[in-house]
Fold this sequence. Notes:
The structure holds two protein chains of two kinds.
Chain A: E1 11-16, H1 19-27, E2 36-39, E3 48-51, H2 53-56, H3 66-72, E4 77-79, H4 83-98, E5 104-108, E6 111-115, H5 126-141, E7 145-150, H6 153-162, E8 168-170, H7 176-181, H8 193-201, H9 207-210, H10 215-222, H11 224-232, E9 249-260, H12 263-284, E10 289-299, E11 304-310, H13 316-330, E12 339-349, E13 355-356
Parallel strand pairs in A: 2-4, 7-8
Antiparallel strand pairs in A: 1-6, 1-7, 2-3, 5-6, 9-12, 10-11, 10-12
Helix pairs in contact in A: 4-5, 10-11, 12-13
Chain B: E1 2-6, H1 7-20, E2 32-38, E3 41-47, E4 51-58, E5 66-71, H2 72-81, E6 87-93, E7 96-101, E8 104-109, E9 124-131, H3 132-142, E10 157-163, E11 166-172, E12 176-183, E13 192-197, H4 198-207, E14 214-220, E15 223-227, E16 231-236, H5 245-248, E17 255-260, H6 261-272, E18 281-287, E19 290-296, E20 302-308, E21 316-321, H7 322-331, E22 336-341, E23 348-352, E24 359-362, E25 365-366
Antiparallel strand pairs in B: 1-6, 2-3, 2-5, 3-4, 4-16, 6-7, 7-8, 9-14, 10-11, 10-13, 11-12, 12-24, 14-15, 15-16, 17-22, 18-19, 18-21, 19-20, 22-23, 23-24
Amino acid sequence: MLSSVPVDRKIIHCDCDCFYAAVEMRDQPSYHHRPIAIGGPANSRGVIATCNYPAREFGVHSAMSSAQALRACPQLLILPSRMALYKSVSAQIMAIFRRYSDCIEPLSLDEAFVDVTESILCGGSATRIAQRIRAEVAAEVGITISAGVAPNKFIAKVASDWRKPNGLFVVKPEEVDAFSAQLAVKKIPGIGPVNAAKLAAENIHICADLRVFTALELEHKFGRLGQSLALRRFGLDERPVQTCRIRKSVSVENTYDQDLVTLEDCAQALQPLYEQLMLRWQQLSAQYAVAGVVVKLKFADFTQLTREYATNDIELDLFQPLLKQAFSSGNRQQQKRGVRLLGLGLKLQAPITQQQLRLF
Amino acid sequence: MKFTISREAFLKPLVLVAGVVERRQTLPVLANILVVVEGDQLTLTGTDLEVELVGRVSLDQAGEDGSVTIPARKLMDICKSLPDHAMIEVAQTDEHVLVRSARSRFKLSTLPAADFPNVEDSPESFEFEVPQMALKQLVDQTGFAMAQQDVRYYLNGMLFEIKDAQLRTVATDGHRLATSCMPVGLPDQAAQQLIVPRKGVLELARLMTEEDGTVRLVIGASHIRAFTNEFIFTSKLVDGKFPDYERVLPRNGDKIVLVDRLAMRGVLSRAAILSNEKYRGVRMTVSDTNLQVVANNPEQEEAEESLMVDYQGAQIEIGFNVGYVLDVLNVLHSDQVKMTLSDSNSSALLADGGNGAAQYVIMPMRL
């Protein structure tokens, strides 16, 4: 019988440490030893995007409202975001990755998978490539970047977080089994607080606890997530590093200075958002087709609701009923909740070779 | 309550009234029909709260007065499956009704007549009478273009417009539109538009069965009511703004193609077999006296057909959802169909070759 011996892949997950804050600290060294954050101002209901480690000691974290962050850490300095600068720094970092591989999958401005399986640099050692990348980013860009080296994306991503900040952690192919056995289940993508609690209730805390089930049992318990758990519990992940990202959706959203209290307020806010969405869509319409429309509402209490509808058409009239549905589900009976954020999105699919034109 | 009736006399109203009853209801009583006997008058009522149908039959012999509600589908299935010309006796006994015929006996549960809901009334504004067959034709010619379960709820229905002594119906799903009209004796009526929900339209058309009968339509602020000899039909109206059909009717088509309807239908139904199953696009090329139809699917299979047509002019290539064109060819009755085109990105206007009132607009596909 013929069998091909699979070659172990070498994947590096690179992740800058508090990226926006690191860029600001680089440009203003006095920020190094005081808590800073990048985000919207507290008086206009801004949200924290990133904060440095001194700020984290006070319990400040990203996605927290700026007002809340200031309560936790009154001396916190909240800086406005300089997105154009961050983008140019990101391009500089991605260029460093490209010295070592062409197979790069950026996950965001400050984070990427680099597949160096084929690389002959540094004697083919992924660990040494990761060290070089970290040294070059520090020397040329002036910020620190953590890296994880492993035979797949899942373990590489976990590993980059292992010695954060400014750390490197390597999981060799022969160590994957033992490393993943002791890994907390909440480190697996898809296991959020709800699923983690569900597992904890069954006394499942680490991946080894998941290994007693059959793949079928996992699928019964967790549905589609179960299929990925069946692999991740052994530290396995066969997903390739994808160099060109296929978009699944495009969306725009806005947080309002004052809550939108009535459905009419929301309906009025819909038009300008729709126009923004159309601008975004125009840039994508050559490569994608619409598979559905989505409306997202975030209420004053930060709970959020989305409503979607499968359609190949785009028009404002398709969003209005979804807005109404979402708004009324959020404002049932006694419960009156204002809307702080309104978002519109399109679900995308591969371009349709045949496109039905619309009458109106 | 008690009455005796022949299977045939009972079935006709029973089937139509039970047709209004939804398979899934929000209230248990909505699965039932209301049965009322007053002397020799038997009245059956079914409703889903949006649409209500009342059927009336004269009994040969007066029954015992009374009213009760009976599970619609079971009663209908029982009566349907009894032998032809069977006599059926329905009698209420406390909480149940007994349905008897020859040596068969069925005991059905009931719910009190008092629980049966009425479709809410609204003030009536005007009424007119039209031949049943004319109304049926109007609905049949346009109903296929109504949307189904679209979030734009106003498209899941049919526009009735009364204007300039004409009754016009319009249906559209956003990709194609169908409209037709007929004269009505309402010369001085101010223009009026109402949207009848999809189910109301379909049920109304089913009632139009009398060859020479007429139907009286009464329009209220939030409902439409139709009276025939045997039935009173009520439907709520859809509150919404229907798209402006006049804006959608193309006016600048300069390429007029006359085709044989049945020949074209044959060509398109064959080509459809190899069209993309999801989008159903076919490419039509019209040149002097010739219409070529080509269909491809993702498996790279191909259908190609040609057809003689009456056309002189520049060549035009245009793609359509083949289903939309076939729908039109199926509801027209004339030998010839007139297609008016302008270019491959603009809508096509289809109508019969004579002077029929029905017009169809189809947006092309980009292939």
